[in-house]
Amino acid sequence: MENQNLQTVYNAFLASTGVGIDSRKLQPGEIFFALEGQHFNGHDFIPQAIEKGVSMIVCSYWHYDVDFDSYCLVDHPLEMMQELAKWHVKQFKSPVLAITGSNGKTTNKELIAGLLSLKYKVHKTPGNFNNHIGLPLTILNAPRDCNFMVLEMGTNHFKEIEFLCHIGQPHYGMIINIGKSHLEFLGSEAGVLKAKAELADYLYEHKGILFCNRDETSIAPLLNHPVDKVVYGAVTDKVKIELVEENPYINLKIEHDGRSFIFPTRLIGHHHFKNLVNAIHLALYFGIELEEIKEFLSDFEPGENRSAMVEWRNNKVYLDAYNANPTSMWASLTAFDSAFPSPKAFIIGEMGELGSVAAEEHLSLMKRILEKGIDDVVFIGPQFVELEKNISYSGFIFFNSINDLLSSKESYQRFDGYHLFIKGSRSLKLERLLEG
After folding, report:
1. Cβ contact 248:263 at 8 Å
2. Sheet architecture: strand order including 419-423
3. What pTM was computed for the model?
4. Same-domain pairing of 251 and 149
5. Quick check: 348 and 337 in contact, CB under 8 A?
6. Is the pLDDT at 181 greater than 70, yes or no?
7. Average pLDDT for residues 400-421, to the nearest whole number?
8. Cβ distance 315 to 321 under 8 Å?
9. Long-range contacts for 120-124 (Cβ within 8 Å, ≥24 apart)?
10. CA atoms in the 13 A half-sphere facing the CB of 166
11. Following DSSP, what letter does each residue of 234-282 receive, concatenated?
């Protein structure tokens, strides 16, 4: 990367209002990075960016007959954006926390960032901006007065977490769990652990600290990693966190320093208990008072179509249209089935990025549902349709797409007074089911 160009862009960045890559969402004073992808080319939208009032354009070529000379030519705009983010973090003297894992990254991020916000000016990853494009955007759009960054890091290939760490340069890290995610590229749960452990490797090399929940057996090998660790669990010498009730919402009891609180949360499912334990211990580590933790957790609600209870028509709906893999699907499904009475139905979308084990995992899910005695299940996606012949059960209905289900009055419009479970991979956009 040319140092002169980096310095030029950084000087412009300090005078800008932020950065953007989507010409439709640009704000006046931002820097526009003309990225090129498989299905788009940001250079095609440079005139629109100029109309939006950007302060600079970073691009790899220029052939526009417009009155605008604040542009910087670089070989690769994306690499420049990544280098800019890396350089900007070096100037950031406050803590950076990186969060990764197979399931629950965003929920943990939201819980932790919310609790830390009680003491710090926190900037967190918006939505799922957790890859090689989203992470630098997150960093570069942080408010200048923030003094704590919480960065979500996702991966589906080896060395991606390592690459993201070199951009975000975290001082602290948390690897939530290891499950059956991104098997198409990582091969197995052992491969997933190796990929996620790149965060621990980075922290070890840079004298950082890894938070480890010893109750999460899937990350047990990390307890032997040489990185400095803060190891905790639901019960420690100083803190006792107890699951009092989970029907349908989790109620917690916390004992700490001679004080005790019992309070409700708005989270459904036993799998969220470990997420709460993670957030509570990290908040206590950074000096958040127990009373403040209790008040925040009592009011916290998941958003962004993730593990949320919503009303639709005359139905109560558990909606998780954000992502799905075999581990998270089964945990959420069984929690819902235990928590809610009949009449209830399950709308299950296929799970992405499973590679050669996709058919095996989808069939396994259907068999486990059948063995559990759950009926009234709608499966959506070609993966499920292909396997319909392997399952002979009248309580299961199959559709290739959401549109097919929406057009089926008998299957879709019959829901009235139900508890509905809706979960599937993000590509399906299952939230569309609630628009009708």
Report:
1. no
2. 308-312, 315-320, 419-423, 344-349, 377-380, 396-399
3. 0.83
4. yes
5. no
6. no
7. 87
8. no
9. 120/94, 120/146, 120/147, 120/148, 120/286, 121/145, 121/146, 121/147, 121/148, 122/146, 122/148, 122/149, 122/150, 123/148, 123/149, 123/150, 124/149, 124/150, 124/151, 124/152
10. 9
11. SB-SSEEEEEEEESSEEEEEEEETTEEEEEEEEEESTHHHHHHHHHHHH
Q: Structural domain of residue 235, as residue ranges?
A: 92-299
List, in order, residues 6 or more apart from 233 with CB less than 8 Å away.
213, 214, 215, 277
Sole residue written with tokens 């990350």: 219
Looking at residue 305, its pLDDT comes to 61
**Whether residue 105 sits in one domain with residue 31:** no
Give residues with Cβ within 8 angstroms of 286, minimum separation 6: 95, 116, 119, 120
**Looking at the predicted structure, is the pLDDT value of residue 401 above 60?**
yes
Tell me, rounded to whole angstroms, the distance of Cα 417 from its chain centroid.
31
**What are the pLDDT digits (tens) for 258-294?**
899 999 998 988 889 999 999 999 999 999 999 999 9
Instruction: Please state the domain count of the chain.
Output: 3
Do the domain assignments include residue 87?
no
Q: Rounded distance, CA 368 to CA 355, Å?
A: 20
Please report the pLDDT score of residue 1 as a whole number: 43
| CATH assignment at residue 206 | 3.40.1190.10
Place of tokens 């590229």: 185
What's the first-to-final CA gap in the chain, in angstroms? Answer: 50
Q: How confident is the model at residue 436 (pLDDT cuts 50, 70, 90)?
A: low
